[in-house]
Structures are given as C-alpha cells and as structure tokens.
Design goal:
alpha/beta; 4-stranded parallel beta sheet; 15 helices; 13% strand
Length: 395
C-alpha cells in the first residue's frame, strides 16, 4: 500500500470572528481531513507571505482554503499555490470556490414564512453586500412567484460600535415597523438588528410572531436563543467546508477547476419562537388550527374541527384550500411530521413515544408518512440529523 505524501493545507477563515458560518466551514474541513490521513491543516490567516519574512520554519503550503481577499488571491496565484475560496463576497469568475447558495437560501426563507400563512412579507438587506443582496433577491423572487406582496428596504451594514450608525438603524427599523401592516413576515440579515426590531415591535404592543414574524440570515446562538428565540437559516456551512476540502484535493492532484463555483443549498430553517406560528387572516382557519394544534397527539375528526370553527366540513375545506393551499388532512399530517422531526432531534426519545405524541396511530404509519414526505424513515432522519450535529460540535 502506497503512503501518500503529507499535504500541508493553510486555513484562513477569520476564526477570531464569533460567527457560526466561519466555525462550521472549519468543522467541515476538519471532517474531510480526518478521513484523509495525509492532510495536515494549519491555521494561518495570512498564508503565502515570503518565508524570509516569517522565519526559516515557516511551512510551504500545498493548498489553501480561505475567505480569500483579492490580495491573497493575487499572491497565491503568483506563487502557483491552489486556492479554494469560501467567501461569496470575493467570488469572481475563474476562481475555484465553494459557497452557500444565497438565492436558494432566500427562497427557503420566503417559503418558511408563506407556509406559516403570512401573506405579506418584507426583507431588509444591504444592496452593497453580495451575499445579503442575493439572499434578498431569492426571497423576493419566491414571493413574486407565489403572488405574495413583499416590501424591500435597504440599509447599509456598518459597525454597531459607531453610535450614529446604531441610532440610525434604530430609527430606520422604527419607521419600517410603522409602515407595515400586520401580520407580516420579515427577513433580516443579522441577529442584532433582528433582536432590535423585535424589541421595537414589542414596545409598540405588537406580538411576536402573531403580528410580526422575524427570521434572520445568521444563526448566532448567543443572540437568537434569548426569548423570544429567533428563527434562522441553516445554510449547511459544514458542507461548504467539506466540499471545499474535496475540491482542493482535486486541484492539488492537478485536476482542472470546475467552470462554475460549487453552490451548497440551504438545509432549511431552524424554526424558533419568532416564526413558529401560523399567521392566518382567515378567522375560520385560525380557530381550526388552534383546535388542531392543541390536540395533535389525539385522533382528529374533521367534523369536530369544523364544529370548533363553527362551519360545515365542506366550508372548512374551502377555507383551508384558500388560506393555505392544502386541505385539512394534509395540514394535519404536515404538522405531525414537524412535531415528530423536532422530537427525533432528541436521541433518548423512543420512536414509539414520538409516534404517539405526534399523533400517528402507529410506528408503521409514521414510517410510511416519513418515507413519502421526506424520502427516509424516522430512524434514518434521526441518524442523519444527529450525525451532522455531532460533526459540527466535536470537530
């Protein structure tokens, strides 16, 4: 068996920044490195500087994965060192790169709010920031396709340490709230401004998420998990790191770079209190959903549901179809799958108990529904979820 020569890989991901995006990309790279014994990853935020400026023991790299500035791109190209970029902001034609797919992320965000019944949307973005702008474009495009009104507002992101910038942001968000007509679902880039908007909304007597649902691009746990917890995009950045490492390995082997960057689709939404509610203007559907959500673990009879909303079963079906685009039974099944998915995230929870709690009459029925809706069994979903969580936590 041939032993492969050790490959020295520089990692320049601005790991001093407290952003899950940076940390998760790094975790994905480390996962790839653990699977390939000849990889040696070295953190170096300024790779490619001349050895004479850094001492005789400075390593020469076989490749670099970086949030690559234009200066770093030029330096490594001149040296002939393969580079894979993970920073969408500095992406350019001809530069090998792996990025989250921002347009897909925007669509996922819009669909999350629309599926919860919001029929008015809004997005705040920085049009000078490529990633923010692209997510906003995907969000608006999805809203247009679904014929949902969507208001775009623009505010340039700067350091919150600047007093005038923070005060300006506060005034901007206050004015935006005054112009909105609840219920409305909003997408903002960062968790600090999302938190500020929630505070301003609550000060005006608005309820989160019944009147204003808030979703943010970034999933900064220290901020989003303060009550009310803020829903965030799961952009699958772990996969960005893993695929960046795989691509760099191919480039080091002399294989040609792909013609286009590799775009990783978002995995979905991490739903928390700020959006986890159905904002339906139809009072009949609201009454029915309240009845259903309080009894999901029980057998549900459509006639009883109709009685709770004080309409006939036929009328109830028409209201659901008009407000949600799906029937009563379909909505009940969807809600039960969501409850089961949340419970499956807890490794100690028995699947039989999950089936009962989420309203499936048997484990076999839950298995059938999961296979049809998600393409995998409940145990398969749990295994996949926990494996990805474990990699992100321990690497």
């Amino acid at each position: 068996m041939t032993t492969l020569r050790t490959r020295r890989i520089a990692i320049a991901l601005e790991l001093d920044q407290p952003y899950p995006y940076h940390q998760q990309v790094f975790a994905g790279i480390q996962a790839y490195a653990k699977e390939h014994d000849h990889w040696r990853c070295l953190i170096d935020e300024h790779p490619g500087l001349l050895p004479k400026r850094r001492g005789p023991h400075y390593p020469r790299y076989d490749g670099v994965i970086a949030r690559a500035s234009p200066a770093l791109q030029r330096r490594l190209k001149k040296m002939g060192v393969p580079l894979v970029n993970t920073h969408y902001q500095t992406a350019r034609p001809g530069l090998p790169g792996v990025y989250t797919d921002p347009h897909h992320s925007g669509r996922v965000a819009a669909e999350h709010l629309i599926d919860r019944g919001f029929r008015r949307l809004g997005v705040m973005r920085d049009h000078e920031h490529k990633h923010s702008s692209a997510i906003g474009e995907g969000f608006v495009r999805c809203a247009v396709e679904r014929e949902i009104p969507c208001e775009e507002v623009f505010f340039k992101e700067r350091s919150y340490l600047e007093q005038q910038h923070w005060l300006g942001l506060e005034r901007f968000l206050a004015n935006w709230l005054e112009s909105l007509r609840p219920p409305v679902g909003l997408l903002l880039e960062g968790s600090p401004e999302a938190r500020l908007l929630i505070q301003l909304a609550q000060a005006r007597g608005l309820h989160i998420p019944q009147d204003v649902a808030v979703l943010c691009f970034r999933n900064d746990l220290e901020i989003v998990e303060v009550s009310p917890q803020i829903s965030g995009l799961d952009e699958n950045t772990f996969r960005v790191g893993y695929e960046a490492a795989r691509l760099l390995d191919r480039l080091i082997d002399g294989q040609p770079a792909p013609d286009q960057p590799i775009l990783i689709p978002a995995r979905g939404i991490i739903a928390r209190e700020s959006t986890d509610y159905f904002a339906i203007e139809d009072p009949v559907v609201v009454k029915a959903l309240r009845y259903i959500s309080a009894r999901l673990s029980e057998p549900l009879d459509i006639e009883r549901i109709a009685e709770s909303a004080m309409v006939s079963t036929r009328s109830l079906q028409k209201h659901f179809s008009s407000a949600l685009g799906r029937g009563v039974s379909e909505e009940i099944r969807r809600l039960r799958v969501e409850v089961a998915k949340r419970m499956l995230a807890e490794p100690e929870e028995p699947i039989g108990r999950i089936a009962r709690h989420s309203g499936f009459s048997s484990m076999d029925l839950m298995d059938q529904v999961f296979r049809r809706e998600l393409g995998m069994t409940p145990s398969g979903y749990r295994k996949q979820f926990l494996a990805e969580k474990a990699k992100a936590r321990h690497l």
